Please model this.
Amino acid sequence: MGIPTYAGLGTALSGLEAMQAGIDTTSQNISNASTPGYAQETVDLTDSASLRYASGSAGVGGFEVGTGVTLKSILRADDPYVDQQYWTQNGKSSYSSTVYTQLDDLQSNLDDSATTGISAQLSNFFSAWGSLGGSGGASTPSAQNVVSQGQTLAQMFNSLSAQLSTLQGQASSELTSLTDPSSGEVAQYANQIASLNTQIAAQTAAGLSPDTLEDQRSAAIDSLSALVGVTVVPQSNGADTIQIGGVTDPNTGTTGAVTLVDGSSSAVGDPTTAVTLPDTADYTAATGGQVGALVQLSSPTGSIATLSSALDSVAGEVATDVNNLLPSSTPFFTGTTASTIAVSSGATAASLVAVANAASVTPSDGTDPATTGGDLMNQLSGLSSSVTAAYGSFVDQVGEAVDSADNSNTTNQALLTSVADQRESVSGVSLDQEMTDLITYQQGYQASAKVMNTMQSVLQTLIQSVGGAGI
Amino acid sequence: MTVTRITNLMVNRDILSEINQSQNLLDNTEEELATGLSINKPSDNPYGAALAIQLNGQLASLNNYSGNITDASGWNQTATTAISTIQSEAQRAQELVTEAANGTNSQADLDNIAAEVNQIISAVKSAANTQYNGQYVFSGSATTTQPYSTTSGDDAYAGNTGSVNRQIGPGTSVAVNVDLSSALGQGQSAGDGGLLDTLETVYSDLTSGNTSALGNADLTNLQTNLTSLTTVQTQLGAVQDQLTLAGSSIQSLQTTLTSELSDDEDANPASTMTAYSSEQAAFTAALKAGASIVQSSLMDFLSN
Model:
């Protein structure tokens, strides 16, 4: 029993096909080198089942002849562990970058130098009191100056407070638009992932490998991970279950890890049941991604709110300390928060002149003794140092918040780069590697073609030389 | 970070991130050089920013006190000059009275002297009405009210006894005015022995030819008046001393605070320039290295 005549052709053909597949895959990799979510593909080759030939008596001895190469599958280079590390870190980096950008914006609203800004205005205001008292025979223009400086100061407080509120409001509305269950980005990505899950599960069940769909899903999860902190749980049917933490489940009301996209077999069959979208209000405990950052910034206990109330206490200190020294019949300020502080309508130049010129006035706080109007003016201007120090603490607080957000952001970005590199190392396309593979496959193809050529001439020789007589 | 495969995307991203970092550093240093300050926003140095605010506030109040001291000194100077004038006039009156009292003058001579005494009275009142910056210096705290009327015979003092204060330090104020009205008095009708009373008495004694009163009571009274004026001058001198002392102590405080402020927030030009040069060199190196790495790959070296 001999080796089949055309067996060799079959072997060479399988080689050509395998090399062809290799070149095609290399071409695919090169074309998609920059595609988001794309994972490098390699051909998985194995040698084909060999033919067994017996020689001698039945079943004893013999040899095997190979029949070529089989392309088992195209492998997608993907490490779920490294991917999850990337997604987690992406969420953290996105969080810290959003917080830092907003706080830095807040800081630039302070505009404090020696000549402009609230600290300079505080000095102007309190020196105006000093000049009023010093006139001894306090004059109306000096008193009018006190009123004007006070009004400017109150307006500056109001304005800064309004800017802080605006920032908080902007964070809140951006949060709403991102998390809206019908039109928000989170919802869009969730729906996209759910429909990809369904298609991937169907293809996997049919025995195909859905590489392109998996690339698209990977890209969608990348984008989603920047928005919220995601945990991805791969399912056996090929689908991925996406969970997000710190959210209230709209169905059960409990706060914890909520399954945004359900990848189990029952859910992928019907994509509309696979996605659970919480409302904006359910995200109040979220801590990851851009959404988590916006929750923190817009929260009544978050960074912006804390700084806002610190500003309120500075304004309150100004209003209270000044009013306490003045007689209760002529308060200077109304309102005790930065947004409500204003000069009282009863504080006119005439009323101030009357107080400054009075021989004896009683401060309204009940603890300071009665004193002359002139001395009272001195005491008022002496408030400058304590109030300026309070404002200085506020600025310190702002600076520290921004500084710490900056440091956190720098660290997180560095970590993200490192983790991204790890992931790239596993799934990324290296053009140098593709070039080398291309050479390998090309030469393999040329060699197989040469073999085929040789087989052809061998067969030709066989047919022409070994035939019937006379042909 | 050790990885087993390096891909083009990885290399490009890393180069970009390093160039960005380098550029960030450069931007910050450039801002320091342009503004001359090391603290350009609170997050650069939160505690330093708060300290700068406090120091600036203190310097602002010191500037205020300094201005008040200058104003007070001007007032003081004006008052001193006016009182000197009054003193000269009173001394002239003394000479005239001495001359009139010696008994060799005729009534006509005495009338001439009386006319001059009248002039002296106007001059004294005019000096008492001196103003500084639109405010009457000898009117007590009623600084917009002229203390003495220029009408002859009307010597009523229209001011009060209040004090005009200037704040020259935290919780420290000084009265810059002095009470001249008790030295000048309110004229002959009040009979209080003040300078105006004395001068008007002299005038009547001259016109009536009462040389014995001129030589005794009038001279004595004039002497007393001169002494009171000297006392007032001394008071003014004491206030000026206080102002000078306060002024120099404020100046040295200003110097200290300015230096402290500079330590806190000023950028050190030498070290900032050095940092800038080295960062610029690093940035250029990053760009050059990046450019050459980004472009080359295996494809450059394959022959076909």
Observations:
- Chain B touches chain A through 52 residues (CB under 8 Å).
- The mean pLDDT of chain B is 89.
